[in-house]
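Chapter review: from sequence to fold.
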Amino acid sequence: MRRMLLLTLLWAISARAAAQKIPVNKYGLPVLTTRQQYDQLVKADSNQQLVNLEHYIPGIQKDVRYATTNNFTKQQLYTRTDIYLRLPAAKALKAVQTALRKKGYGLLIYDAYRPYHVTEAMFKIVPNDLYAADPRKGSGHNRGVAIDLSMVDLKTNKPVAMPTDFDDFTRKAHQNYMPSDPVIAANRKILRDAMFQHGFKGSSTEWWHFYLPDYKKYPLMDIFF
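The token string follows.
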């Protein structure tokens, strides 16, 4: 027992020391900006590792809108379509995928880890923190533990019907909106229940957005992988 406590204490000291080396930005937020800083953090705590979801979760699908102009900014914000999450978030999402496949569905990812400067660009276009994260606080996406997603029907391999498209800023995208179509309401509930059952929390204004509640354990990052 004492050995376990000692190891826990040493891990906390090591992780804290690594975090203290992270430079702060103009808002006073610690933000990792180099691969070297990231590697040091992962060396101190393996849970800080970013995992490629396509490699980690069999059968996962993606539609990375920010690598196109088909998003609310009408600009291409990413040059690649790789999707990453921190290891604990990836593990939880893998469990979600397994649970959904038993019901005939699979996950469709719109966005996962997002470099911090992309959040800054988004907020300039939509300066409303109901829909775009305020860079003075940062986003769960910048920490690698938030995910934007929907589902596909495994029989048709097509996205299921949801209350709105991704990045819709109307009331219909809110979690408390009641769709008139029972199929749409059921689809949203299946996704929400699976995410909640495996440790994620949801957004009140975006049916597609989920995150780990302990997101503050993971520093903000502004690195492309």
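Two observations follow directly from the output. The longest strand covers residues 146-153. The chain has seven helices and ten strands.
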